[in-house]
Each structure stands twice: as C-alpha cells, then as structure tokens.
Design a protein that fits this description.
The chain has 11 helices and 9 strands. It is of the alpha/beta class and 287 residues long. The chain folds into 2 domains: 74 residues, Helicase, Ruva Protein, domain 3, CATH 1.10.8; 198 residues, 3-Layer(aba) Sandwich (Rossmann fold). The model has no long low-confidence stretch (mean pLDDT 95).
Length: 287
C-alpha cells in the first residue's frame, strides 16, 4: 500500500468526485460532508477518528465499497438511501427507495400533535406513513397512545414495520390502504398526515434527488391539492368531536388548505411555519 491508499487521500478522491457531480447541485449541497459520512459509514468509525488519523491505510475492500457508495451519491441518489438510514425526531430510521426520505420540517407535525394533546391516552392515526417516521415518533413520546398508521404501499409498510421492530415500538398498528380505507368504523383524537402535495408538472419535480424517491409519495398528479382535499373531506367521519387534523403542505398552500378546512366545518384553523419560515403545516379542530 502507498500513501495514495491513506484515508485522507481516499476521502479527498471521494470529495472531488462529488463536487463535480449532481450531488453538488443546489444551495444545500454538502459534497465534502457527504464524502466524509460515506467513508465513516464504510469504515464503521467516527468522523473524529477519521480526522485524527488521515494517514491510516484503507484496504482494497474498503476502497472498493467506499467508491461504490460515492458513485451512487454522485448520481444524485439521496444520502439517506446510500447510507440506508435517516435521523428523525429522536429516532434513527431505516429508509429505502420505497419511502420518502423524512424531512426535518415534518417534525413540526410531531411537535404540534404532542402540544395539542398532552394527555397520556389518545387515539392517533398517521395517514401515508411511509417509513413510519411520524407514527413511531409519537409512539416513542406518548407510550399510552394507541397509534395506527396507514399506507397504500406494501413496500413502504414493510420498511415502517421493520423500523417499529428495531425501535421496540411494535405496538404501533400498520394497515394497508389508501388514506381512510382501512379505518372503517374507527375514530381518532388526532389525524396527522404528510400527503403528496407537489403538482406533477412542478419544476421542483425535476430535482435530481427527487427522481430517486417514490413519485406517488411526492405528487398526487396534476392537481397538487388532490390528496389534501380528499383527506380534509373525509376526516370529520374519523375524528372524535374536538379532535384535531394536522396536515403538512407546500410552502404556498396554507391559505388554500385553510379555506378547504373552513368550508368543511373545521374551526381553530391555524398554520405554523417551519425553521425556514415557510407556512409548512396547518391544524384544525373538528366542529
């Protein structure tokens, strides 16, 4: 082995590759950090250890595994898919291309659900659960809550169920079906959802990273409001009186979502901003 086989040299090689790739596009791109995280993942070590021993040598297998991960990330594949995991709330979740990568702004749904219902008991459903991020976070914070989660995708439910097992939150019930279809006869204190809300022809859909995520979880088709409207229309039948509906939506959709909620008879309608200052979710109480 030569100095070219050192961890420092390997890291620089990976970073150069990512800087020149689709992974470096966009204002939030972090190619150098991504290269470092992929190398620590490959080696099973920490960033501190990597930085303090850049002269250490990588063997052939480590180099090949690392460069294969770099190649995947260079196509724009989300870092979470390459690593196979994503942090959300206080949990580390397994993620695959069968589910959306959980976003930090979605944590606002968890925060508001906990604030609106401080009681130890509650019945809560997460519609379109994906990786189970919202449902499992609520179950972690409120052990006395009965948490149900639905998704139309069996592949997504397999990821969510695996996360529930690894996190020892197996009391969460996962049901297959579109929105409320598997919930006939049941009512809840809180309904929460992060449904698809991007129009199919929105320029955002051309983002390199989004090409790797499940399209059905991103867009409902040409009408960006279709899923939000369907949930709002059906929700009162599944809510206890004074129960809450919490919806994530696009940064420019708050007024339209609020209008739909008011028209459906909801009260105490209010939107909340994410850390970027966008009106990202709206909550409303059943009349």
């Amino acid at each position: 082995m030569t100095q070219e086989d050192s961890l420092g040299a390997l890291l620089e090689r990976g970073a150069r590759r990512l800087r020149a790739s689709e992974a470096a596009r966009g204002p939030g791109a972090t190619p150098d950090l991504d290269a470092e995280l992929l190398l620590t993942h490959t080696l099973g070590t920490s960033r501190a250890r990597l930085r303090s021993h850049p002269e250490a040598l990588a063997d052939k297998g480590q180099r090949e595994r690392y460069l294969a991960l770099i190649d995947r990330r260079s196509t724009g594949e989300p870092l979470a898919y390459v690593l196979g995991r994503k942090d959300f709330w206080t949990l580390q979740l397994a993620v695959t291309p069968a589910v959306l990568v959980p976003r930090p702004e979605t944590e606002l749904l968890v925060e508001r659900a906990l604030a609106l219902r401080p009681e130890e008991f509650g019945r809560v459903v997460d519609l379109g659960t994906g990786s189970g991020a919202i449902a499992l976070s609520l179950a972690q914070e409120r052990p006395g809550w009965l948490v149900t989660a639905t998704d139309v995708s069996e592949e997504a439910l397999a990821v969510a169920r695996a996360n529930s097992v690894s996190l020892q939150l197996e009391r969460v019930q996962f049901l297959r079906g579109s929105w409320f279809v598997p919930l006939a006869g049941h009512t809840f204190d809180i309904i929460v959802s992060n449904p698809p809300y991007v129009a199919a022809d929105d320029p955002a859909m051309r983002d390199a990273a989004l090409r790797h995520e499940p399209q059905g979880a991103l867009t409902p088709g040409p009408d960006a409001m279709a899923s939000l409207r369907a949930i709002i229309d059906a929700a009162p039948e599944y809510l206890e009186r004074d129960g809450w509906l919490l919806l994530e939506h696009g940064a420019t959709q708050a007024a339209e979502v609020a209008g739909e909620l008011v028209a459906r008879g909801f009260r105490h309608v209010r939107s909340h901003r994410d850390l970027a200052g966008h009106e990202r979710m709206t909550e409303a109480r059943r009349g």
